[in-house]
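Hey, quick one: can you model this chain's 3D structure?
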Amino acid sequence: MVEQPVWADEAAMVAALRPLLGDDPGTLQFFRSGWDSVAIAARERIFKFPRHQRALAALRREAAILAFVGPVSPVPVPRLVLHAGERPFSEHPAIPGEHLLAAQYDGLAPARRQALAEALAAFHAATHSLNVGQLTAAGTGPVEAWSPPEIVERHAVPALPAPERQRAVDIIATYTALPPDPYGMVYGHFDAHGWNMAFDLAAGRLNGIYDFADSGIGPLHRDFVCSAFISWDLTQRLLTAYEAQTGRALDRQRVHTLIGYHRLWELAAAVQAGGEVDEMVHAAQDWLDRQ
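Sure thing. Here's the predicted structure for all 291 residues.
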Protein backbone atom coordinates (compact mmCIF):
# COMPACT_ATOMS: atom_id res chain seq x y z
CA MET A 1 0.00 0.00 0.00
CA VAL A 2 1.59 3.29 -1.13
CA GLU A 3 1.24 6.48 0.85
CA GLN A 4 -0.63 9.17 -1.05
CA PRO A 5 -1.01 12.90 -0.45
CA VAL A 6 -4.08 13.97 1.48
CA TRP A 7 -6.60 15.28 -1.01
CA ALA A 8 -8.41 18.44 -0.02
CA ASP A 9 -11.87 16.90 -0.17
CA GLU A 10 -10.77 14.18 2.24
CA ALA A 11 -9.62 16.52 5.03
CA ALA A 12 -13.01 16.06 6.70
CA MET A 13 -12.46 12.32 6.69
CA VAL A 14 -9.25 12.67 8.68
CA ALA A 15 -11.08 14.91 11.14
CA ALA A 16 -13.70 12.20 11.55
CA LEU A 17 -10.98 9.72 12.43
CA ARG A 18 -9.42 11.81 15.20
CA PRO A 19 -11.96 10.97 17.91
CA LEU A 20 -11.46 7.28 17.20
CA LEU A 21 -7.66 7.36 17.01
CA GLY A 22 -6.88 9.91 19.72
CA ASP A 23 -4.50 12.82 19.43
CA ASP A 24 -1.82 10.72 17.71
CA PRO A 25 -3.37 8.67 14.94
CA GLY A 26 0.03 7.59 13.64
CA THR A 27 0.78 7.51 9.92
CA LEU A 28 -2.34 7.84 7.83
CA GLN A 29 -2.16 6.04 4.51
CA PHE A 30 -4.67 6.95 1.83
CA PHE A 31 -5.63 4.82 -1.12
CA ARG A 32 -8.55 4.68 -3.49
CA SER A 33 -10.73 1.65 -4.10
CA GLY A 34 -11.51 2.37 -7.74
CA TRP A 35 -13.73 5.42 -7.96
CA ASP A 36 -16.12 4.08 -5.34
CA SER A 37 -14.39 4.89 -2.10
CA VAL A 38 -11.39 6.27 -0.29
CA ALA A 39 -9.79 4.02 2.30
CA ILE A 40 -7.52 5.13 5.11
CA ALA A 41 -5.22 2.86 7.06
CA ALA A 42 -4.26 4.01 10.54
CA ARG A 43 -3.06 2.11 13.60
CA GLU A 44 -3.75 -1.28 12.01
CA ARG A 45 -7.32 -0.34 11.23
CA ILE A 46 -8.96 0.31 7.87
CA PHE A 47 -11.56 3.02 7.35
CA LYS A 48 -13.51 3.18 4.11
CA PHE A 49 -15.43 6.25 2.98
CA PRO A 50 -17.91 5.78 0.10
CA ARG A 51 -17.76 8.53 -2.50
CA HIS A 52 -21.34 8.18 -3.75
CA GLN A 53 -24.67 6.58 -2.86
CA ARG A 54 -24.08 3.44 -4.91
CA ALA A 55 -20.83 2.80 -3.04
CA LEU A 56 -22.56 3.46 0.27
CA ALA A 57 -25.26 0.92 -0.60
CA ALA A 58 -22.56 -1.62 -1.49
CA LEU A 59 -20.77 -0.99 1.81
CA ARG A 60 -23.99 -1.48 3.77
CA ARG A 61 -24.66 -4.67 1.84
CA GLU A 62 -21.16 -5.95 2.61
CA ALA A 63 -21.65 -5.20 6.31
CA ALA A 64 -24.95 -7.12 6.29
CA ILE A 65 -23.30 -10.08 4.55
CA LEU A 66 -20.37 -10.15 6.96
CA ALA A 67 -22.80 -10.26 9.87
CA PHE A 68 -23.79 -13.71 8.55
CA VAL A 69 -20.36 -14.85 7.36
CA GLY A 70 -18.28 -13.78 10.36
CA PRO A 71 -19.85 -16.10 12.96
CA VAL A 72 -19.53 -19.22 10.76
CA SER A 73 -16.30 -18.68 8.86
CA PRO A 74 -13.30 -20.71 10.11
CA VAL A 75 -11.07 -18.21 8.28
CA PRO A 76 -10.88 -14.65 9.66
CA VAL A 77 -12.90 -12.10 7.69
CA PRO A 78 -13.22 -8.32 8.23
CA ARG A 79 -15.10 -7.39 11.38
CA LEU A 80 -16.88 -4.50 9.76
CA VAL A 81 -18.50 -1.72 11.80
CA LEU A 82 -20.54 1.01 10.11
CA HIS A 83 -20.41 4.53 11.53
CA ALA A 84 -23.47 6.62 10.76
CA GLY A 85 -23.54 10.36 10.33
CA GLU A 86 -23.49 12.93 7.58
CA ARG A 87 -20.63 11.03 5.93
CA PRO A 88 -21.10 7.31 6.80
CA PHE A 89 -17.99 5.16 6.79
CA SER A 90 -16.84 1.72 7.87
CA GLU A 91 -14.09 0.56 10.18
CA HIS A 92 -12.42 -2.81 10.67
CA PRO A 93 -9.14 -4.14 12.03
CA ALA A 94 -6.64 -4.85 9.27
CA ILE A 95 -5.97 -8.54 8.67
CA PRO A 96 -2.17 -8.92 8.50
CA GLY A 97 -0.72 -10.66 5.49
CA GLU A 98 0.16 -10.33 1.81
CA HIS A 99 -1.53 -11.25 -1.42
CA LEU A 100 -0.94 -14.84 -2.48
CA LEU A 101 0.16 -14.99 -6.11
CA ALA A 102 1.25 -17.87 -8.32
CA ALA A 103 4.95 -17.37 -7.64
CA GLN A 104 4.46 -17.43 -3.88
CA TYR A 105 2.25 -20.51 -4.07
CA ASP A 106 4.80 -22.32 -6.21
CA GLY A 107 7.35 -21.77 -3.45
CA LEU A 108 5.20 -23.40 -0.76
CA ALA A 109 6.04 -26.86 0.52
CA PRO A 110 3.42 -29.54 -0.25
CA ALA A 111 2.23 -29.62 3.38
CA ARG A 112 1.56 -25.88 3.35
CA ARG A 113 -0.23 -26.12 0.01
CA GLN A 114 -2.45 -28.79 1.49
CA ALA A 115 -3.10 -26.76 4.64
CA LEU A 116 -4.16 -23.81 2.50
CA ALA A 117 -6.52 -26.01 0.49
CA GLU A 118 -8.05 -27.40 3.68
CA ALA A 119 -8.58 -23.90 5.07
CA LEU A 120 -10.21 -22.67 1.85
CA ALA A 121 -12.39 -25.77 1.69
CA ALA A 122 -13.61 -25.15 5.23
CA PHE A 123 -14.36 -21.52 4.34
CA HIS A 124 -16.36 -22.51 1.26
CA ALA A 125 -18.19 -25.26 3.14
CA ALA A 126 -19.20 -22.82 5.87
CA THR A 127 -20.40 -20.07 3.53
CA HIS A 128 -22.26 -22.52 1.28
CA SER A 129 -24.18 -23.69 4.34
CA LEU A 130 -25.65 -20.23 4.98
CA ASN A 131 -29.35 -19.78 4.38
CA VAL A 132 -29.87 -18.24 0.95
CA GLY A 133 -33.29 -16.89 1.87
CA GLN A 134 -31.97 -15.03 4.92
CA LEU A 135 -29.09 -13.54 2.96
CA THR A 136 -31.42 -12.48 0.16
CA ALA A 137 -33.69 -10.78 2.68
CA ALA A 138 -30.63 -8.96 4.03
CA GLY A 139 -29.92 -7.50 0.60
CA THR A 140 -27.61 -10.08 -0.96
CA GLY A 141 -28.19 -10.38 -4.68
CA PRO A 142 -27.05 -12.69 -7.47
CA VAL A 143 -23.37 -12.77 -8.36
CA GLU A 144 -22.39 -10.80 -11.44
CA ALA A 145 -23.70 -12.41 -14.59
CA TRP A 146 -21.19 -13.43 -17.21
CA SER A 147 -21.77 -12.21 -20.75
CA PRO A 148 -23.64 -14.66 -23.01
CA PRO A 149 -21.60 -17.01 -25.21
CA GLU A 150 -22.22 -15.11 -28.45
CA ILE A 151 -20.77 -11.93 -26.93
CA VAL A 152 -17.76 -13.74 -25.48
CA GLU A 153 -17.04 -15.48 -28.78
CA ARG A 154 -17.41 -12.29 -30.78
CA HIS A 155 -14.96 -10.27 -28.70
CA ALA A 156 -12.60 -12.73 -27.04
CA VAL A 157 -11.79 -15.21 -29.80
CA PRO A 158 -10.40 -12.70 -32.36
CA ALA A 159 -8.15 -11.21 -29.65
CA LEU A 160 -6.36 -14.53 -29.16
CA PRO A 161 -3.43 -15.83 -31.21
CA ALA A 162 -4.65 -18.08 -34.02
CA PRO A 163 -3.54 -21.39 -32.44
CA GLU A 164 -5.78 -20.80 -29.40
CA ARG A 165 -8.94 -19.69 -31.17
CA GLN A 166 -10.43 -23.11 -31.86
CA ARG A 167 -9.77 -24.18 -28.26
CA ALA A 168 -11.60 -21.07 -27.09
CA VAL A 169 -14.56 -21.85 -29.36
CA ASP A 170 -14.64 -25.37 -27.94
CA ILE A 171 -14.71 -24.10 -24.34
CA ILE A 172 -17.53 -21.70 -25.19
CA ALA A 173 -19.52 -24.53 -26.77
CA THR A 174 -18.95 -26.79 -23.76
CA TYR A 175 -19.99 -24.00 -21.39
CA THR A 176 -23.13 -23.34 -23.45
CA ALA A 177 -24.13 -26.99 -23.16
CA LEU A 178 -23.69 -27.22 -19.39
CA PRO A 179 -26.86 -28.25 -17.54
CA PRO A 180 -27.84 -26.39 -14.36
CA ASP A 181 -25.50 -26.85 -11.42
CA PRO A 182 -26.40 -30.13 -9.69
CA TYR A 183 -26.15 -28.46 -6.28
CA GLY A 184 -28.14 -25.41 -7.25
CA MET A 185 -27.58 -21.93 -5.92
CA VAL A 186 -25.61 -21.09 -2.79
CA TYR A 187 -24.21 -18.04 -1.10
CA GLY A 188 -20.50 -17.76 -1.84
CA HIS A 189 -17.60 -15.36 -2.07
CA PHE A 190 -17.10 -16.06 -5.82
CA ASP A 191 -13.94 -13.92 -5.86
CA ALA A 192 -11.58 -15.83 -3.57
CA HIS A 193 -8.38 -15.31 -5.53
CA GLY A 194 -5.02 -14.39 -4.06
CA TRP A 195 -5.58 -10.63 -4.28
CA ASN A 196 -8.41 -11.02 -1.77
CA MET A 197 -6.36 -13.07 0.68
CA ALA A 198 -4.17 -12.05 3.60
CA PHE A 199 -1.42 -14.66 3.58
CA ASP A 200 1.51 -15.01 5.98
CA LEU A 201 4.28 -15.91 3.55
CA ALA A 202 6.81 -16.63 6.28
CA ALA A 203 4.52 -19.02 8.14
CA GLY A 204 2.78 -20.31 5.00
CA ARG A 205 -0.60 -19.63 6.61
CA LEU A 206 -3.84 -18.07 5.42
CA ASN A 207 -4.65 -15.24 7.83
CA GLY A 208 -7.90 -14.09 6.27
CA ILE A 209 -10.16 -13.43 3.30
CA TYR A 210 -11.68 -10.06 2.50
CA ASP A 211 -13.61 -8.03 -0.08
CA PHE A 212 -17.14 -9.43 0.16
CA ALA A 213 -18.72 -6.59 -1.79
CA ASP A 214 -19.10 -8.76 -4.89
CA SER A 215 -20.12 -11.93 -3.08
CA GLY A 216 -23.62 -13.21 -3.62
CA ILE A 217 -25.90 -16.03 -4.68
CA GLY A 218 -24.71 -18.25 -7.51
CA PRO A 219 -24.09 -21.80 -8.76
CA LEU A 220 -21.99 -23.79 -6.29
CA HIS A 221 -19.32 -24.97 -8.76
CA ARG A 222 -18.65 -21.40 -9.89
CA ASP A 223 -17.29 -20.55 -6.43
CA PHE A 224 -14.16 -22.62 -7.18
CA VAL A 225 -13.15 -20.66 -10.27
CA CYS A 226 -10.93 -17.95 -8.83
CA SER A 227 -8.51 -20.17 -6.90
CA ALA A 228 -7.09 -21.18 -10.29
CA PHE A 229 -5.63 -17.67 -10.66
CA ILE A 230 -3.21 -18.83 -7.97
CA SER A 231 -2.72 -22.36 -9.24
CA TRP A 232 -4.66 -25.24 -10.78
CA ASP A 233 -2.83 -27.41 -8.26
CA LEU A 234 -4.51 -25.42 -5.48
CA THR A 235 -7.93 -25.76 -7.13
CA GLN A 236 -7.56 -29.53 -7.40
CA ARG A 237 -6.49 -29.79 -3.76
CA LEU A 238 -9.37 -27.50 -2.78
CA LEU A 239 -11.96 -29.60 -4.62
CA THR A 240 -10.71 -32.80 -2.99
CA ALA A 241 -10.66 -31.23 0.48
CA TYR A 242 -14.16 -29.78 -0.01
CA GLU A 243 -15.50 -33.18 -1.02
CA ALA A 244 -13.99 -34.78 2.08
CA GLN A 245 -15.41 -32.09 4.37
CA THR A 246 -18.91 -31.90 2.88
CA GLY A 247 -19.58 -35.29 1.30
CA ARG A 248 -20.48 -33.54 -1.97
CA ALA A 249 -19.00 -34.99 -5.16
CA LEU A 250 -17.79 -32.17 -7.40
CA ASP A 251 -17.59 -32.20 -11.18
CA ARG A 252 -13.98 -31.30 -12.05
CA GLN A 253 -14.71 -31.01 -15.74
CA ARG A 254 -17.46 -28.50 -14.98
CA VAL A 255 -15.05 -26.44 -12.87
CA HIS A 256 -12.42 -26.67 -15.60
CA THR A 257 -14.91 -25.40 -18.18
CA LEU A 258 -16.11 -22.58 -15.91
CA ILE A 259 -12.54 -21.41 -15.37
CA GLY A 260 -11.89 -21.31 -19.10
CA TYR A 261 -15.12 -19.46 -19.85
CA HIS A 262 -14.47 -17.00 -17.03
CA ARG A 263 -11.10 -16.07 -18.50
CA LEU A 264 -12.58 -15.63 -21.95
CA TRP A 265 -15.38 -13.52 -20.46
CA GLU A 266 -12.83 -11.24 -18.77
CA LEU A 267 -10.93 -10.95 -22.04
CA ALA A 268 -14.12 -10.09 -23.93
CA ALA A 269 -14.98 -7.43 -21.36
CA ALA A 270 -11.52 -5.88 -21.68
CA VAL A 271 -11.82 -5.81 -25.48
CA GLN A 272 -15.25 -4.18 -25.27
CA ALA A 273 -13.92 -1.58 -22.84
CA GLY A 274 -11.11 -0.71 -25.22
CA GLY A 275 -8.50 -1.12 -22.50
CA GLU A 276 -5.27 -3.03 -22.19
CA VAL A 277 -5.88 -6.67 -23.04
CA ASP A 278 -2.41 -8.25 -22.89
CA GLU A 279 -2.84 -9.52 -19.34
CA MET A 280 -6.25 -11.01 -20.14
CA VAL A 281 -4.92 -12.63 -23.30
CA HIS A 282 -2.08 -14.18 -21.31
CA ALA A 283 -4.48 -15.49 -18.64
CA ALA A 284 -6.74 -17.02 -21.28
CA GLN A 285 -3.80 -18.54 -23.16
CA ASP A 286 -2.45 -20.05 -19.94
CA TRP A 287 -5.72 -21.90 -19.44
CA LEU A 288 -6.29 -22.82 -23.07
CA ASP A 289 -2.88 -24.49 -23.16
CA ARG A 290 -4.25 -26.99 -20.64
CA GLN A 291 -6.87 -28.28 -23.06
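One thing worth noting: The two ends are 37 Å apart (CA to CA).
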